[in-house]
Fold this protein.
Amino acid sequence: MPSAYEHARRELLSRGAVTLPGAPPGWSTLLHVLIWLLLAMTVVVAIGLPIGLVVAIANGVAVHPIAFAAPLGGVGLVALVIVLLRSHRRFREAQRMAVTFAPQGLTVRGIGPIPWHDVYPPSHQLVPSQYDSGYERRAVMPLTASGLQNVSRLAPAHRKLLGPTSGGLLTGGQRTESIHVPSAAAMGTEEMMRLCALAHQLYGQGGRRG
């Protein structure tokens, strides 16, 4: 029985297009688990702070007035992690949307079709991290000049769904220079990269590097 990749490859070559069920990639699932663990720890801290204050006062320990603000800080931290969790949950829901490879372009996370001449072939690159100021190695398709222009016209929320963003208010706003290689059910990252490369070879001649 052919693998999911081989089936998709054959359909792309024979029909010229293929639609796959989307799925969150491994790094997204791991991040989701880590956020849940962070939420659990912050809840423990938020509960422990007022209990600690009560115990200290009951035992006659002198408590600095500023310590009474600590429980509020704990609650604020929990609220911040909940916002982060909800944001990532919406991101994962978008990752489950169908991925379509067609002559007109790539449709991913409900956005598209993105013309093949708007992207270069897929590769592993260091890109801005989604949730901190560092960098991480991800499978992406860098945007061509036309791709940079077209993606810049999208709403910020859509740009974040497509790929890593960099910059901020001091640098003229967030900028997207590549899009994530999409993920699909029953297929690994390397297989999706090969499928993207095949579609780009078939339809994206204008997007090749010179």
DSSP finds six helices and nine strands in the chain. Residues 168-172, 206-210 have pLDDT under 50 and may be disordered. The chain has two domains: 4-22+97-205, 27-94. Helices lie at 4-15, 26-58, 70-95, 145-152, 156-162, 189-203.
